[in-house]
Design brief:
Layout lengths: L3 H24 L6 H21 L7 H26 L9 H4 L9 H24 L4 H18 L17 H6 L4 E3 L6 E3 L8 H12 L5 H13 L4 H12 L14 H17 L2 H17 L12 H7 L16
Antiparallel strand pairs: 1-2
């Protein structure tokens, strides 16, 4: 594997933006999820490989036929893996955001987490009315996100501003709901799927998270961090509310909160929790977390599934300018 600095310069800010632009010049124009077609086609291809190898094989030939089927399957999956790495996944190995930011690890303690929890409640209270007064389309939401999203990703290492992509429906919506998966970025087709069960207040932060992945930030904690900062630094109350709600649900469960949330905020939190409990299937969620956690660990994310919550540490330990954007080491005086 090339060193992170090389990947940052030559892949994340070299090959990847060019490939993304060419790929999305096609996928963005298609109203359905090409990723769904890819997965269904891959499944049918593998089934076809096994059928072709085993059909008509005599009993004494089945062992060899099975070996040929397994070899064919490995060849197909190897091609899929190579495409996965080349199309997106080398971004897991770019220079981590925590190495770029001006951080003070000593700030990450119970006192700072409690202060962040109190601030989160204050900000939710301050923005709840404005958030509920707004209604916008995905295209309008993307335009509202652009200024702070681009400013944040540029600050954290992107030399190119990746344009937003349309949200597409997916045949895997039932699985997303059952596993409490609210969004998915297809690494092969660079498409974004969001669960249709997301409320209007969750959608901006969820979209910004997936947009972060498309912008070359593969790590889940970094995508959550960019989503939160892009939203809470916005001038729009609905985006701010969505960002602070993302932070709220990722705070430690034992964080001490002194401020009291308004009834409208409590109602929103309870509605999100109730939907989660209603549609999530615990067995499916456990399997999804275990599998995805191992996938993350295999791709240079040591914390696995828990990496989603680590962005809270970046918020408490980081330095931010007057616009709420992260200060990075190269910008420090």
């Amino acid at each position: 594997m090339p060193p992170p600095a090389w990947i940052e310069a030559h892949y994340s800010n070299g090959f990847y933006p060019v490939w993304d632009a060419h790929l999305r010049s096609v996928t963005d124009r298609v109203p359905f999820s090409i990723g769904d077609v890819f997965f269904v086609g891959l499944f049918l291809l593998l089934v076809g490989v096994w059928i072709a190898c085993l059909r008509g094989a005599k009993a004494e030939q089945r062992l060899r036929a099975s070996a040929n089927s397994l070899l064919g399957t490995c060849v197909v999956l190897a091609g899929v893996f190579i495409a996965f790495m080349a199309s997106w996944a080398y971004n897991y190995h770019r220079v981590p955001v925590k190495q770029k930011m001006a951080l003070h690890p000593e700030r990450v303690n119970n006192t700072s987490i409690a202060a962040l929890a109190d601030r989160t409640v204050r900000m939710l209270n301050a923005n709840v009315s404005g958030a509920h007064a707004e209604r916008f389309t995905d295209a309008q939401m993307q335009r509202l996100l652009e200024p702070t999203f681009y400013a944040t990703t540029r600050r954290l290492g992107d030399r190119v501003s990746f344009p937003p992509t349309p949200v597409k429906p997916t045949i895997f919506e039932p699985l997303m709901r059952a596993s409490a998966t609210y969004g998915f970025t297809d690494p092969w087709t660079h498409e974004i799927n969001l669960s249709t069960s997301l409320s209007a207040i969750e959608r901006p932060a969820a979209y910004a998270h997936e947009w972060s992945h498309l912008s070359g930030f593969a790590d889940e904690s970094e995508a959550n961090f960019i989503a939160a900062i892009s939203c809470i630094a916005s001038k729009d109350p609905a985006l701010r509310y969505s960002g602070w709600m993302l932070i709220w649900f990722n705070l430690p469960s034992d964080a001490h909160v002194r401020n009291r949330a308004l009834p409208a905020v409590i109602a929103d939190v309870n509605a999100i929790v109730a939907r989660f409990r209603r549609q999530t299937k615990p067995a499916v969620e456990r399997v999804q977390r275990a599998v995805y956690g191992r996938y993350l660990q295999a791709n240079n994310v040591g914390a696995g599934f828990e990496s989603y919550r680590l962005f809270v540490q970046l918020i408490t330990a980081g330095e931010f300018d007057r616009d709420g954007l992260p200060i990075v080491k190269r910008l420090r005086k």
